Amino acid sequence: xxxxxxxxxxxxxxxxxxxxxxxxxxxxxxxxxxxxxxxxxxxxxxxxxxxxxxxxxxxxxxxxxxxxxxxxxxxxxxxxxxxxxx
Length: 86
Fold this sequence. Notes:
The chain is an all-alpha fold. Helices cover 79% and strands 0% of the residues. The protein is built from four helices and no strands.
């Protein structure tokens, strides 16, 4: 039961990043995206993932790996857009 709540929270956290990923990769917009902020969030998620591994908690591990992939997707997309700007 407890892990189910963790998985549900993790899925919602991942779904929350979809609009940001779409804005960067589909709409090619990066206005207002702070790469240092995203880097700090990525570090926090990495630490939470390590915590989940040490517990061990599949829900924490899954949620943070998936959220990290979403954040890294945004970071890579923004860096790519900014690199191609004049």
